[in-house]
Amino acid sequence: MLENIIYITVFAILVFVLSIAVKAITRGVEAKQIIKEEKDLDLNKENQKQTLEVIDQIKELKELHDKGILSDEEFKKAKEKILE
């Protein structure tokens, strides 16, 4: 009888420890996923910022071209340089 109580107690402790381990692993995986998503979001924001800067630069060139300050060839070269 005492033997069965010991087995049940050891089994209960084992189940408790395993449940804690599973929760810890799950939290770690979730945290890693959140960090990855935040990095991806930061990269996307940086790419969008760079794209907007390029668009603004091309708009400025277009305005200079429309005003006659830049020739067609100068505009084309400057635009190609920005897009590199």
Report what the structure shows.
With 84 residues, the protein is mostly helical. The protein has one domain. The protein has helices spanning 2-66, 72-83. The protein starts with a helix and ends with a helix. The model has no long low-confidence stretch (mean pLDDT 92).
- Helices and strands: which structural class? mainly alpha
Outline the low-pLDDT stretches.
Answer: none
User: Which overall shape is indicated by the principal axes computed on the Cα atoms?
Assistant: rod-shaped
| Topology order in helix (H) and strand (E) letters | HH
Count the E strands. 0
Indicate the radius of gyration in whole angstroms: 31 Å
Strand content: under 5%
Q: Mean pLDDT across all residues, rounded?
A: 92
Number of helices: 2
Q: Tell me the domain tally.
A: 1
Largest sheet features = none
Residues in helix, %: over 70%
Question: Distance N terminus to C terminus?
Answer: 81 Å
In a few lines, what is going on in this structure?
With 84 residues, the chain is mainly α.
